[in-house]
Amino acid sequence: MKCMGVGLCRRLAVSDNTLKDILRILENDPRTSAGDIAVMTGKSLDEVNGLIKQAEEERLILKYKTVINWDKVENEQVWALIECKVSPKPDAGFDSVADRISVFPQVRSAYLASGNYDLLLVVVDKNEREISDFVSQKLSHIEGVESTETHFVMKRYKEDGVVLGEGEPEKRQQVIL
Fold this sequence. Notes:
By secondary structure, the protein is an alpha+beta fold. The chain has helices spanning 8-12, 16-28, 34-41, 45-57, 95-102, 128-138; strands at residues 78-86, 107-112, 119-125, 145-152, 158-159, 162-163. The strands form two sheets. A four-stranded antiparallel sheet has the order 2-3-1-4. A two-stranded antiparallel sheet has the order 5-6. α3 (34-41) crosses α4.
């Protein structure tokens, strides 16, 4: 397997698996200490700290994230999935349009996708009106955006691999045959 990053593994004389193990541990729980990671991977604390620092500098680690169940917080948020049909630029393809869309703070995620639409956006704002205004006043005016289709999220069940519900037992009637 090829090592991730621009020669990070070669420069640090570390295997692909060690770096991947560290990245997976941090992805699963960004609060895991370097000491715990060292124990889990069998590497020295200095080596783990060096790998983490290099991974941050090389933008392999972009952000340490906490998943919040906003449905349990008083400040309500509205989520929407927005499909965008885009005319790609001859020299830049979809990237230039996606880059312009991605700078808006409401856009939580942006993906190039296959299917009837080219870009899939995850947008979060205070209410439906704010998202509607974003689509009609900002998104639709970006050069290259041909059309959009907005889907408001009614309930989130799982995010970034974390089940958001209480783990309530299924409330189905038992069927006896």
